[in-house]
Amino acid sequence: MNKWNSFLIKVLIIAFFSGFTSCSNSQSKRGNKKHAPLTLDETIEMNRRMVDNEQNEIARYVKENNLNLKASETGLWYHIDEAGSGSLIQAGKVVTLAYKVSLLDGTICYSSDSTGYKTFLVGQGGVESGLEEGVLLLKKGSHATFIMPPHLAHGLIGDSEKIPARAILHYEVTVIDVKNK
Q1: Dist CA 26 CA 33 (whole Å)
Q2: Which of 90, 124, 146, 181 is the most buried (most CB within 10 A)?
Q3: Is residue 131 classed as helix, strand or coil in its secondary structure?
Q4: Is residue 68 part of a domain?
Q5: Beta bridge partner(s), residue 30
Q6: pLDDT above 90 covers what percent of the chain?
Q7: Pairing of strands 77-82, 70-71
Q8: What is the count of structural domains for the chain?
Q9: Residue 111: helix, strand or coil by DSSP?
Q10: Residue 82 lies in domain
Q11: CATH code: domain of residue 164
Q12: How far is 180 from 117, CA to CA, in rounded Å?
């Protein structure tokens, strides 16, 4: 997720909670308090439930489609279909990927066939954090499948083009090239 999307998510969250708080404050002044602002513990619990639900949805998808994927500690699901050669990709390398991004229902959002290869400097942001994490498991020539929950992809708001809000993404990637910066 790029810095702009991250900034937008933070602004939306602040705006949401500010609006929620101001509504509660104005109602309490009238003596008709209907909604109290969420406490930090309630917010954490709500986020935990959302992440749990997303992980359950991914697990169900993996099982239904008979996929052999592992889950990382962050929630990235992955399988390395072809190992590639050389050493593992490291932060600071420039990586070029052939890719296809789709929703779990099979809707293709983006692919290198239509938009060209994706090239980025690993460890510098500018791409989904799940993609950054995933490429660190790969070598030149590797082919892998990643399933990214929203918090590792486009988050609460999507990308305002083809990826909807809170979308779980299915990535297929092939490492075309790895270079020094």
Answers
A1: 8
A2: 146
A3: helix
A4: yes
A5: none
A6: 68
A7: antiparallel
A8: 1
A9: strand
A10: 38-180
A11: 3.10.50.40
A12: 17
